[in-house]
């Protein structure tokens, strides 16, 4: 990772606004490629999709190499950002050195604008649940996670972004709300935040808190990226990324941008892959909101 790449992401201590982007998914790979550098200022990939147990794939591994070559080609059109799901930052397991080494090696090759993961734990005692599990928001956990974030950042040589999760349970023993925990964590660890507005909306509904009150605690100078996605409605809202972004989430997004200014914003779609023209509508809507505030 060159220092220059990271400096281009953070200007005067603020995260540089890069316009709208999209999460690269197989179903939309061609459409994404066509729009890179024009309608799309950047794109996000799931870090783990490009990692293998032995790190960068060797030339003999044709299939794996193909995906790296495609990423190289796309990155030639617009910058990439890495979004991980295995950092396991809240776990009591030691940090996974092999995973971090592979991420660092991948980042040295593709020079992402930034690297993000989630405020959660994904497993303990070496077992990976492949789920983003909620944390207990206590002083001890804050100290624990801040110290681990610091070590990750030192190792990767850059600040990372942590995303607020969507949650379906909470712990009575928590001493902070999630938003206050995130604020304290970002300040103590000197890390950035990836604000997923749909996750705020989903968790607010599921736990009965006020989404706007949650957002009022977020230190926006540390927000480097915003996720917008759809959820599945029911008694409990499920963060499926299988539906269009709801009007209520658009409303929150518009309020955030209007008060705090534009941030690099991305549409996340992970299931029910509708024609890309429908994603285009959402991208244009986000672009308009950003441009309105920018002007
Ligand atoms: Fe997200």
SSE layout and pairing:
Elements: H1 3-9, E1 10-11, E2 14-15, E3 20-23, H2 29-35, E4 42-46, H3 62-75, E5 80-83, H4 97-110, E6 115-118, H5 139-156, E7 161-163, H6 178-189, E8 192-196, H7 197-207, H8 211-216, E9 223-229, H9 247-260, E10 264-268, H10 276-294
Parallel strand pairs: 3-4, 3-10, 4-5, 5-6, 6-7, 7-8, 8-9, 9-10
Antiparallel strand pairs: 1-2
Helix pairs in contact: 5-6, 9-10
This protein binds fe (ii) ion (FE2).
Report the uncertain regions: 1-8
Bound small molecules, which ones? fe (ii) ion
Q: What is the general shape? A: globular
Briefly note the structural class of the backbone. Answer: alpha/beta
Question: Taking strands numbered 1, 2, ... along the chain, how are they ordered across the largest sheet?
Answer: 3-4-5-6-7-8-9-10
**H/E series:** HEEEHEHEHEHEHEHHEHEH
Task: Report what the structure shows.
This protein has 295 residues and is of the alpha/beta class. The chain has helices at residues 3-9, 29-35, 62-75, 97-110, 139-156, 178-189, 197-207, 211-216, 247-260, 276-294, and strands spanning 10-11, 14-15, 20-23, 42-46, 80-83, 115-118, 161-163, 192-196, 223-229, 264-268. Helix 6 links the parallel strand 7 and strand 8. Helix 5 (139-156) crosses helix 6 (178-189) and helix 9 runs parallel beside helix 10. The longest helix is centred in the C-terminal third of the chain and has 19 residues, at 276-294. The radius of gyration is 18 Å and the shape is globular. Mean pLDDT is 92; it is low at 1-8. It binds fe (ii) ion.
